[in-house]
Design a protein that fits this description.
Its main location: secreted. By secondary structure, the protein is of the alpha/beta class. The protein has a single domain, classed as Zn peptidases (Aminopeptidase, 3-Layer(aba) Sandwich). The protein has eleven helices and eleven strands. The strands form three sheets. The chain has a six-stranded mixed beta sheet with strand order 3-4-6-5-7-11, with helices on both faces. The chain has a three-stranded mixed beta sheet with strand order 2-9-8, covered by helices on one side. Helix 3 packs across helix 5, helix 5 crosses helix 10 and helix 8 crosses helix 10. It binds zinc ion. Zinc ion binds next to loops. The site of zinc ion (ZN) has 4 residues, from loops.
């Protein structure tokens, strides 16, 4: 992605969501997504969601895909097939979006976005996305750990860990979860409108042309089914700082902030100092403009964007140092917990409590003393 100047400001209090009285399918979907609210989990449920961590699974997936995977290479094909197979084994419907485009250096190349959907019959989706290609360098084998093997692994790890509550809650639901693994995010020569985000440009244009429902003629298309596109990028280095980059999704950014603060309050984040304002990853600040990434083709078509990308970028960005050594597993686990909690609250997942073991959550017994109720944040 590309980074340029930004404007920084403190987050204001949100206004009420607008009501749209129009009657077409797009407006109904818009009303549904605008009126959608998260269901907060109890402290015990938050601890349960945190305790579901599976670091071995995370490391297995990361180590499998953390190889140079430039579009058009055998490694790229291997990683693509691994992602498809893994999501299929989790019982998600996996669709591929293959297309060809001309690139600098390599000429015509075959790209393929991977779209995995839980419950394809749902009307609306919370969409998580990352890119699975890695950047081409003539001189070195760049593996792109934060860019974006870790974000892809975070999504797969979330689907694996939450597979039971996701299946049982979302099999009949109107709202479900969709993953996009974009291809061709990286420029081959120099970042520009024709040399970057190949997959995102293709998929956004394709979905805009695809009517929903199929025979609908009022202009409603597949993009209208996206509640919000949560784009994960450049994650895994220690102490990331995130900001709200889009006014339209400030309420969902706050939900991420709240997830982090609740997990911290309950002692569920590792190597993390509770009570130090600067320690929070999700800053209570907004920054406007300046980052070009896979969200752009969706954003210009009106899809709400929640961009989870640190500013500044990791110091290893687009260097050989963006490898396994750049990945701080404590940070990654914290982010995994925050993302799981966000998804669980957004999708109203039923979190079963019976399997909580005293050994995995010793704080459970101290909770009444430490925290009799959920913290109400002053900025909420
Ligand atoms: Zn990159």
């Amino acid at each position: 992605m590309l980074f340029s100047s930004i404007i920084l400001s403190v987050l204001p209090i949100l206004n009420g969501l607008k009501e749209d009285k129009a009657s077409n399918v797009a407006s109904r979907l818009l009303n549904e997504k605008n009126s959608h609210t998260p269901v907060p989990l109890s402290d015990e449920q938050i601890i349960k969601v945190a305790s579901l961590s599976n670091v071995n699974h995370f490391e297995y997936v990361l180590d499998t895909i953390l190889i140079p995977r430039v579009v058009g290479t055998a490694n790229h094909e291997f990683v693509k097939q691994f992602i498809i197979k893994t999501m299929q084994e989790l019982d998600w419907k996996v669709e591929s979006d293959p297309f060809e485009e001309t690139t600098p250096i390599f000429g015509r190349l075959q790209f393929e976005n991977i779209v995995a959907t839980l419950n394809p019959n749902a009307r609306r989706y919370l969409v998580l996305a990352c890119h699975y290609d890695s950047k081409y360098y003539r001189e070195s084998d760049f593996v792109g750990a934060t860019d974006s093997a870790v974000p892809c692994t975070m999504m797969i790890n979330l689907a694996h860990i939450l597979s039971q509550p996701l299946k049982s809650t979302l099999s009949e639901n109107d709202l479900s979860l969709k993953f996009i693994f974009f291809d061709g995010e990286e420029a081959f020569e120099e970042w520009g409108p024709k040399d970057s985000i190949y997959g995102a440009r293709h998929l956004a244009a394709k979905w805009e042309q695809s009517a929903y429902p199929k025979d609908n003629r009022d202009g409603t298309n597949q993009l209208h089914r996206m509640d919000v596109l949560v784009l994960l990028d450049l994650l895994g280095a220690p102490d990331p700082l995130f900001y709200s980059y889009f006014k339209e999704t400030e309420s969902w950014y706050r939900q991420m902030m709240l997830a982090e603060r609740n997990l911290a309050r309950l002692g569920q984040l590792v190597q993390y100092s509770v009570g130090k304002p600067d320690q929070y990853y999700f800053q209570q600040m907004s920054r406007r403009g300046g980052i070009e990434d896979d969200h752009i083709p969706f954003m210009i078509r009106g899809v709400p964007i929640l961009h989870i990308i640190p500013v500044p970028f990791p110091s290893v960005w687009h260097t050989e140092g963006d490898n396994r050594n750049a990945v701080n597993m404590a940070t990654v686990e914290n982010l995994n917990k925050i993302l799981r909690l966000f998804v669980a609250e957004y999708l109203h997942l039923q979190i079963p409590m019976v399997a909580v073991r005293a050994t995995s959550s010793p704080l459970l017994f101290l909770l009444p003393l430490l925290s009799p109720s959920r913290v109400l944040l002053s900025y909420a």
